Amino acid sequence: MSEVNIRQVPNDFAASAHVNLEQYESMYRRSIQDPNTFWAEQAKTYLDWFQPWDSVLEGNFEGEARVTWFKGGKLNVAHNCLDRHLDTRGDQAAIIWEGDDPSEDRTITYRELHAEVCKFANVLKAKGVSKGDRVSIYLPMIPEAAVAMLACARIGAVHSIVFGGFSPDALRDRIQDAEAKVVITSDQSLRGGRKVPLKGNADKAAAQCPSISTMVVVKRGGEPVEWKEGRDVWYHEEVAAAAADCPAEPMDAEDPLFILYTSGSTGKPKGVMHTTGGYLLQAAMTHKLVFDYKDGEVYWCTADVGWVTGHSYIIYGPLANGAKSLMFEGVPNYPDNGRFWQVCDKHNVATFYTAPTAIRMLMGAGDEFVTKHQRSTLRLLGTVGEPINPEAWEWYHRVVGDGRCPIVDTWWQTETGAHMIVNLPGAVDMKPGSATKPFFGVEPLLVDDQGNEITETPAEGNLCIRNPWPSMMRSLWGDHKRFVETYFKMYPGLYFTGDGARRDEGGDYWITGRVDDVLNVSGHRLGTAEIESALVLHPKVAEAAVVGYPHDITGQGIYAYVTLMAGEEGDKALADELVKLVRTEIGPIAKINLIQFAPSLPKTRSGKIMRRILRKIAANELENLGDTSTLADPEVVNVLIDNRLNK
Ligand code: 6R9
C-alpha cells in the first residue's frame, strides 16, 4: 500500500475554503492542548445560548465514563435551528423536499417551518407530552419528520426515530425500551413507487406497548387505515387547530435530545443517547467546515432520518447553520438510475452526500445515467457509512464530479454523533479510500489486541479515541452499565469504536471495517446476534451463526449457517421461510443472502463458535483458515467447506 494515490483539492476550491492546511493544523493543535478554551470559542461562534455554561468539559473515560460538556448552559435546539434565523433568512428555504414521484416537490421556508414546529409542539403538549418524555417517530422522508423532531426539541421531549424499514416487532421493542408516550407515523410510505403500510405496522407494535396513549398519523399515501378511537389522531387536523405560538423550552446543555437505537455485537439494540449542547455544536461545526458550506447553497444528504446521518446532516447541522437542506423521499433508481443527478439539476445542488453502496450500484448501471444530466452546480461530494473502495471513489470523482469536485470521506458513528475523521477540503489532500485526519478535538489511536497502544507508523490495529469530544453519546438509554462495558472496558480509559484501522506513512487513517460482530450491509448496521436470535425462533432451527462476506454492491452480504433439530431436512423451501422470518422479525434491511444448512458448527472446547473460521469459509478464503486445533471437532470444518455456497 505504499504507492498511495494522493489527490489534491483544486486550487480555486482551496482558495475559498473555510479552512486551509495551516489553519487546520494550528486549530487542531489548540483543540487538543486546550480543549476548554477551544470549544468555548466554538460554542459561542456556532450556537445561541440563553444562559452561559458553568464548565466546558468535565469527566473522562475512566471508571463510569461520565462526561459533560457545557454543563449549566441553557439553550434550545429548535431555537438554534429556526427562531434565530427568522430575522435574517425567514423567507429562505429551510427544507427543499423532493417527493418519490418526480412531479412532487415542496419548499418550506424557515418562517413556515418555525410556524409548523410551534403548532405541532403545542399538539404534543396537548397530548400530555412534557420535558423529558419520549416520543417515537416512525415516518417516511417527508417534511413532517423534521417538524416532529424539532417540535420535540422545542418542548424538551426526547425523540426516538425508528427507520421506516423496520418491522412492527423492531418498532415495538424500541417503543417499549424508551417507554414512549406518543408514536408519530403515516398512513403509508412511498418509495420507488411502492407503498408500505406504516400505520398498519405501528398498530401491530402499539398493541403491545401500554405506554403509548396517542398515535399521530400523517396522511401521505391516502389509502384507508384502521382507526383506534381515543388513541389515533390525524396530524393535519391537530396542527390546523393548534396555536402558532410556543416558547422554546430552555434546556440544559446536558439534557437528552434524542435516543437512536443501533445494533451492537450482542443482544438487543442499544439506545444511544445524545444530549443537547455538545451534540448540536459538533453537528453544526462539521456541517459547515467539512462540507465547506456557503450561505445560500443547496445541500443534499441522501440518508434517511431514521439513521444518525439523517439526524446530524439533514436536520440538525444544516438547520443550525441556516442552510438549505434537501430532503428526498425516494430511492436512487426510481424512476431510473439517473434520479440523483436529475434532482441535482432541478434544485441546483452544490453539495451531495451519500453512501458507497449507492455509488457502487449506480456505477454498475452505466455512465450515461449520470452524463445525460448537467451537474454543473455541484461543488463538493461526500461519502459515509462504510469504507469506499478506490474504484468507486474514482468513478464518483471522475464521472459524477467531472473531476472537479473534491470528495470528503467522513468516518463517524451513531455513537460519535458527528464527523470524527475526515479530509477537510481545502486543508487536507484526498486519498481515495482514506478518511485521513481527525476533526478538531478528536484524538484517534491504534491499540493491539492486548490493549497496548501502537505508537509506530505505519501500523494497523483497533481504532480507539483518547478523550471526550462534544457530540459523543453520554449513555445507553436506561443501561449505563452496558454503555461502560461496551465501549470503555475493552481498553480501559479509551473509547473503543469497534472498527479496525490502518495508519499510513503520512499518519492518515484508513478504516478497514468492523472488528466486532456487527455487519455493515449497504451502510446499515446489523448485529449478527439479532439475526441469529430471529433464526432460532423457527421451531426447526437448533442453532445459527451469522457472518458477513464481501459483496460487490452492499459491501457486506449476510451468510447464515443453520443447524436444524434432529431429524429435520434443510431444503430451498425452508431456507426461503427462514429468510422471510428474519425479514419479519427485523425488517427488509435484514436480508439474508445465503443460508448453509450445517450438521454442526465449529466450536472451541468451551463451546464458543469460531466465527473467524465461518467468516473465511463464507468469503471463500480457504488458504488461511488459521489454527483449528483448538476445535472440539476439527472435521466439522471440512464438511462446511465442501458445502459452502459462495464458490
Ligand atoms: C455514520 C454512520 C458506523 C460504522 C462505523 C464504520 C462504518 C461509517 C465510514 C465507515 C469507513 C467511513 N463507517 N463511515 N467506514 N469509512 N467514512 O454510518 O453511523 O450507522 O452507526 O455506522 O459505519 O464501521 O463503525 P453508523
Shape: globular
Strand content: 15-25%
Regions with pLDDT < 50 over 5+ consecutive residues? Answer: none
Q: Could you state the CATH homologous superfamily of the largest domain?
A: ANL, N-terminal domain
| Number of domain modules | 2
CATH class of the largest domain: Alpha Beta
**What small molecules does this complex bind?**
ligand 6R9
Family: Belongs to the ATP-dependent AMP-binding enzyme family.
Domain AMP-dependent synthetase/ligase: 83-477
Modified residues (N6-acetyllysine): 608
InterPro entries: Ac_CoA_lig, ACAS_N, AMP-bd_C, AMP-bd_C_sf, AMP-binding_CS, AMP-dep_synth/lig_dom, ANL_N_sf
Summarize the model shown:
Residues 24-81 form the Acetyl-coenzyme A synthetase N-terminal domain. With 647 residues, this protein is of the alpha/beta class.
What labels would you give this structure?
single chain; 647 residues; alpha/beta; Rossmann fold; GMP Synthetase, Chain A, domain 3; 2 domains; 8-stranded mixed beta sheet; 31% helix; 23% strand; binds ligand 6R9; AMP-binding_CS; EC 6.2.1.1
How do the helices and strands line up, and which of them pair or pack?
Elements: H1 11-16, H2 21-33, H3 35-46, E1 55-58, E2 68-71, E3 74-75, H4 77-81, H5 86-89, E4 93-98, E5 105-109, H6 110-126, E6 134-138, H7 143-155, E7 158-161, H8 168-178, E8 182-186, E9 189-191, E10 194-196, H9 198-206, E11 214-218, E12 232-234, H10 235-240, E13 251-252, E14 256-262, E15 270-275, H11 277-290, E16 298-301, H12 308-320, E17 324-328, H13 339-347, E18 349-354, H14 356-365, H15 368-371, E19 380-383, H16 390-400, E20 407-411, E21 421-422, E22 444-447, E23 459-465, E24 475-476, H17 480-487, E25 495-503, E26 509-514, E27 518-521, E28 524-527, H18 528-535, E29 541-551, E30 555-564, H19 572-585, E31 594-597, H20 611-618, H21 635-642
Parallel strand pairs: 4-17, 6-7, 6-8, 7-14, 8-11, 11-12, 16-17, 16-18, 18-19, 19-20, 30-31
Antiparallel strand pairs: 1-2, 3-13, 4-5, 9-10, 14-15, 15-24, 20-21, 22-23, 23-25, 25-26, 27-28, 29-30
Bound molecules: ligand 6R9.
